[in-house]
Specification:
This protein has four helices and seven strands, in the order H-E-E-E-E-H-H-E-E-E-H. By secondary structure, it is an alpha+beta fold. It has a single domain, classed as Mago nashi protein. A seven-stranded mixed sheet has the order 4-3-2-1-6-7-5. Strand 6 and strand 7 form a beta hairpin. About 5% of the residues have low confidence.
Length: 157
């Protein structure tokens, strides 16, 4: 009986170690990248969408954010799913398509707030310079170039 309980405890401890290992596997974000996702709001249950990473010739998806706060530190994202190449090629140019006017508005909240719809969170690194923008629901006062960019960012999947 004692050996059976010892074996059970060993298997249980091993299972915990394996599950902890999986939770700590975080894809490192390096080089130039663009990260986007939707957060906040309560219309249509939009508390957190998946976040996406365009970088290193891949499109990756983080599915670990449901029910948790979106991390401020990009190293705490878990881009655990590599999306198909066709999805990557549809959005691969977005990093180079960031409108110049946004580059001079780093860390800005852009657009008119629609609190019930949340915001589109966009982060980028271009030649080592980190940028972040929060796009509100109402973008009609923004330039057409910014509106088109945000529309494309929202279509990432």
């Amino acid at each position: 009986m004692r050996s059976l309980s010892t074996i059970f405890l060993f298997v249980f401890a091993l299972a915990i170690c394996i599950s902890c290992k999986k939770k700590n596997d975080i894809y490192p974000v390096t080089g130039d990248y663009l990260i986007s996702g939707h957060t906040g709001g309560f219309a249509g249950n939009l508390s957190n969408s998946a976040y996406y990473l365009i970088g290193n010739s891949q499109l990756r998806k983080d599915t670990s954010l449901a029910g948790r706060d979106v991390p401020d530190n990009i190293a705490k994202f878990n881009f655990n799913i590599v999306m198909p190449d066709s999805n990557y090629h549809a959005v691969a140019d977005l990093l180079s398509a960031i409108p110049a006017e946004l580059l001079s508005q780093n860390n800005a909240d852009i657009g008119d707030p629609w609190p019930d719809f949340g915001v589109t969170d966009v982060r980028a690194s271009i030649k080592g310079v980190a940028y972040r923008w929060t796009f509100e629901g109402g973008l009609t006062k923004c330039s057409p170039v910014v509106q088109q960019f945000v529309s494309r960012v929202k279509s990432i999947q």
